[in-house]
Amino acid sequence: MSTDRRELDHQLRRLAAIQGGYFSAAQARDIGYSYPTQTYHTQNGNWQRVARGIYRFPEWPVGEHDDLVKWTLWSRGLGVVSHDTAISVHNLADVNPSQVHLTVPLGFRAKATRVVLHHEDLPEGDIWEREGYRITTPFRTALDAARSELSMEQLTIVVKEVCALAPYTAPQGLRQAAERIGHREALRMERALRGADLL
Questions:
Q1: So where are the chain's domains?
Q2: Which end of the chain is more exposed for a tag (fewer CB within 10 A), N or C?
């Protein structure tokens, strides 16, 4: 392998290291891999194709949230893990979503059968960075749960867990934030807070 090829491989692996071993065709192209070269690496087993335009190094250990990295790359880095999926990742309640929930910017147009998209421009303060993906904060996740069809029982559990993280500020903060969203959300949040003995 020439020095140039070694350097390309090094750059791609350095990128993949912060994305759970994954990378997109566009990212590989930006580093210097032409599309014919990408085909070569896939056909020879150097790269594993996991979805259209998304690859991973086959020797990379499988991570707990590999699917979230894959769907983040599918969304071109615009998607933020949210709603039921964020509840599961944060371990706020015992939900087991069959689809991945992503919040994407208002202008986002792509669709996939295994993804539920929520269109909204999230403020940076509502997002946490993880290795290879971004996720809504627990506080924001609780607000999204109040806006969703999550059962009151599950919402109460989520609210209780979130408030345990910030017991002096979260209860009132959630109540006020839900009131700014709408009447239904405010009512659901208040019921959840009362059900968790936080009001």
A1: 3-56, 66-195
A2: N
